[in-house]
Amino acid sequence: MWARVMYPNFASIMPQAVAVWCKAEGHHVTYVCYTGFENLTEELPRDVDLVFIGAFTEAAQLAYALSNQLHSLGVITVLGGPHARCYPQDAQKYFDYVLGFTNKSVIRDVLQECTRHRPVGIHMTANQQPVNVPGVRERWEYIQLALRKAPLIKMVPMLASLGCPYTCSFCIDSTVPYQPLNLDVLKDDLRFLRTKYRRPIVGWHDPNFGVRFDDIMGMIEEAVPSGSIDFIAESSLSLLSEQHVKRMKQNGFKALLPGVESWYDLGNKSKTGQSQGMEKVRRVSDHVNMIMRYIPYVQTNFVLGLDGDEGPEPFELTKRFVDMTPGAFPGYSQLTAFGASSPLNLEYQRDNRVLAFPFHFLDNNGAMNIKPRNYEWHEFYGHVIDLTRYTFSKRAVLRRLRANGGIVPRWMNVIRALSTEGRGRIEYFTGVRQHLVDNHQFRAFFEQETSQLPSVYSKTVQEDLGSMWRWLPPGGLYHDPNVYLKSEIAKNSEKTGRRLVV
Ligand code: B12
Ligand code: SF4
């Protein structure tokens, strides 16, 4: 149910931007937004020359299969998006072009060359994030196509900035400079939107919304009457002072998603400085409760299994947070190294701690691909199950319901508790833990004693890909989890002229 209602609202901005740029170059463009329910073979147009695919890593195997099918019809294929940024070497085996940072000129180069590159595709990237990304007015034709699939809530994706001034070592944006986008375009877009929907909802896709807080709020205040558009944004807690949150409320902000990540690390981001453990729980809980006095829906994001965590305490502290902050929805992610996404992944790879789970499971919950530093696997999953049960217990769900105001936040939290995120995950993690205890082959893979993938994983990919499974190219289920480290070593030895043996 959650997927049906929400997935069309998670459509990315860049495929729409690429469509705008291709059209501006004089091409005929068809845009397809895949939400997991469509039959892709039927949705794709027959007579195409080139297809751009935007994919997260969780969709990589599907993207590889699709590219293979399109190649069989003589179509040139291009991959862009998070998977292409994190695993370019792997993707090059299955696509003619793999794009990193993408701007109009990179797209123009691809369109002009439009050539088959086999057996290895070419990797192209701009030097930096684009200076301009087409706004809502320009993307409207494609936004509408995606949102036609959204039955209840329709969220329009917008972007006010790229990169981030913070340097959280696990994050893909820790090395990408902060860069605001053109405020006049944003102003025009907000006004335009009010001519399309009676009460529009905008989801900001900025990695960290509101870094230049006064500029962006000033823009909203000038563009539209106070509170006439509902906004949703991901911001770090350090930006969400009471004064800022009050102004956000006035300007129609209805949902915020700050990251807490851990009770022991990353104090800068949550403005808790050196405070750790229970002291940090109190501070963050007070802060989030303050935010909830102004903003009806708050999701606090946590990463489970970070190296600074040890024993049951981090999980117990999160339970205390759930008790002390009943209205907030806790979003849990398991520590995941997405290939080349952050410099920290080099350390995990150097320590040989990254497991080669098929990409299909790398969605922050399907599989944790880093061996925990301070937990045995079954012990870790025991804690995760316990915390998830606690968070989605009848008591916690009822307390959340009571603490939330408004129909939409209440409804969203109940659906999330009953869907994959709550009940679904408890069942899934319990299965994983059971296999770890009972199944020697399964445990041996997790312990890196064998590289043979437990059959349950390949079966799941097969089931999920359905009719596309037969198009998954040979080898497409597997990847080298240390390719980022190897490529960095190769680059360095090229620079220094020294040969290194890995
Ligand atoms: C906004 C955001 C979301 C939003 C919007 C998602 C969406 N569909 O776009 C929401 C909240 C819905 C979301 C959900 C999820 N997210 Co998210 N999200 C982000 C965030 C914060 C910003 C991404 C963004 O839009 N940036 C702005 C764009 C313009 O820049 P960019 O992404 O760098 O893209 C550049 C290039 O990659 C390229 N490009 C991008 N797309 C395309 C497409 C084509 C066709 C081409 C040619 C080029 C191209 O051009 C851009 C300009 O240079 C990033 C973290 C970050 N700091 O980047 C995580 C991030 C992308 N998310 C991530 C994850 C894991 C998820 C979830 C799986 C989490 C979960 N468990 O639910 C879901 C999956 C949702 C889905 N399948 O759609 C990971 C992805 C890692 C990976 N390799 O897959 C990231 C990197 C965070 C992380 N953990 O490191 N997310
Ligand atoms: S504040 Fe958020 S976007 Fe910025 S580096 Fe840290 S995790 Fe990444």
What is this entry, summarized?
With 502 residues, the protein is α/β, with parallel strands linked by helices.
Please give a structural write-up.
The chain is α/β, with parallel strands linked by helices. It folds into two domains: 1-129 and 455-502, no CATH class; 136-349, tm_1862 like domain (pyruvate-formate lyase- activating enzyme). 44% of the residues lie in helices and 11% in strands. It has 22 helices and 13 strands. Strands 5, 8, 9, 10, 11, 12 and 13 form a seven-stranded parallel sheet that branches. α16 (377-391) packs antiparallel against α19 (420-438) and α19 crosses α20 (440-446). The protein is globular, with a radius of gyration of 23 Å. The termini are far apart. The model has no long low-confidence stretch (mean pLDDT 93). Cobalamin binds at residues 10, 12-15, 18, 52, 54, 56-58, 78, 80-83, 85-86, 99, 101-102, 129-130, 159, 162, 171-173, 205, 207, 234, 338, 341, 363-365.
In round numbers, the mean pLDDT is: 93
Helix content: 40-55%
How far apart are the first and last residues' alpha carbons, in Å? Answer: 48 Å
**Overall spatial form:** globular
Low-confidence stretches: none
Strand content: 5-15%
Total of helices: 22
Count of domains: 2
CATH architecture of the largest domain: Alpha-Beta Horseshoe
Task: Say how many strands there are.
Answer: 13
Under CATH, the topology of the largest domain can be stated as: pyruvate-formate lyase- activating enzyme
- Main structural class: alpha/beta
Highest-level CATH class of the largest domain:
Alpha Beta
* CATH level-four homologous superfamily name of the largest domain: tm_1862 like domain
Radius of gyration: 23 Å
What ligand molecules are bound, each kind once?
A: cobalamin, iron/sulfur cluster
Biggest sheet statistics: 7 strands, parallel
